[in-house]
Amino acid sequence: xxxxxxxxxxxxxxxSKAAEVKPxxxxxxxxxxxxxNSAAPLEELGSYEGDQIDPQIIFAGEGQRLNTKRTMxxxxxxxxxxxxxxxxxxxxGRASLARWFTESxxxxxxxxxxxxxxxxxxxxxxATYAPTYTAFMRRRxxxxxxxxxxxxxxxxxxLSEIRQATDYKYDALSESSLTYAVKKWGKLxxxxxxxxxxDDTDAFASLPGEMAEDARQTEMYYLSSLYVANAxxxxxxxxxxxxxKLTAALTIAAIETGVNTMxxxxxDGDNPLNNTPIYLVVPPVLRIKAFRExxxxxxxxxxxxxxxAGTTNVLAGELTIVVDPMIPILDPTNGNTSWYLxxxxxxxxxxxxxxxxxxxxxxxxxxxxNAIRLGGGGEDAMDGSFEDDSIGYKSRHVVGGAHTNATGGxxxxxxxxxxx
Length: 420
Prior knowledge:
Layout: H1 2-19, E1 43-47, H2 55-58, E2 64-65, H3 74-91, H4 97-104, H5 110-127, H6 133-136, E3 138-142, E4 148-154, E5 174-180, E6 183-191, H7 193-197, H8 201-224, E7 245-246, H9 252-263, E8 279-282, H10 287-293, E9 297-300, E10 307-312, E11 320-323, H11 327-330, E12 339-342, E13 351-356, E14 363-366, E15 391-403, E16 413-416
Parallel strand pairs: 3-13, 7-16, 8-11
Antiparallel strand pairs: 1-6, 2-14, 4-5, 6-15, 8-12, 9-10, 12-16, 13-15, 14-15
């Protein structure tokens, strides 16, 4: 709750500052600025790999989008600050949710302003998460839902000496490639008529955090699934000296073996790959052990009599420890004993992920009204659904990815399941 109050205070402060700017002229539609366009983890709503589909068609009928990143006019800013203040009073217990809704619904712009406030709260909460996958995976953005590819050219020979009056020679090149496309994920959320009438402020206050949490958890689960216990990316039968699947438990000796295995992977031709792992990725239960194994000094002794051995650990500071909480969830067999090594993704990436350009964060929508009062008055979004009186919101998130085994990305990672 304190984080939500702080986020609302930030909205109120920024809106109040924007309201102090006097415009040369306020357009008649100023109050519409900030309005959207009709256009457990989140459910996967569609995968469009290979289809030549316009995103505008895919997103058609989504409802009223709440986040459009438009610049606030002073008039709109004043009203946004008022709605954010009302929101804060409700979740702080200083005002009735039902009374606030009843009093505010007479204003035609209230649904838009409430949606804008909700959207800003969701994005603030979303930004507070620090997913671990960003450290060892390569990020990119794509323009649409069509398949995108990564191509690696294989050559490998060094430059040839060109003697006087002799021709240059072409290198013998081959290519390997992979393709994937971003996917659409989403989930519906309801504020029921009974919640509002019963002043269920807890449900109202928890909605932004729940939407942000679901979006980030979806990202983490899906992207981690691209590498965790992946039998294609990690294999123990690639050939002599080229295996990137081990079974040793996490110890300094096992880490040393893993590092030496990766640095020995051959590059194209007879060139060295210069591939040194820099990330040690572990499940939560191995976090403390990982820090202990990579400590400056080695430990010696038996249980209850541990002492410093006094020998320097040469791997201390060489690897950054990353904890991925999704490992035991995705790998119920060895998830609590597994550990992974990854190279710098800017040099050699084992996994690549992508967001749709301009939609790198979750988008929030309000359900378009589908009920009309027969006694007078038009459609009002706050009247809710014709079927059950609920006010519907929706979260949509677009993200995709793939492991890069097909282009040699397996050389940039190593997995030990810790079973021996």
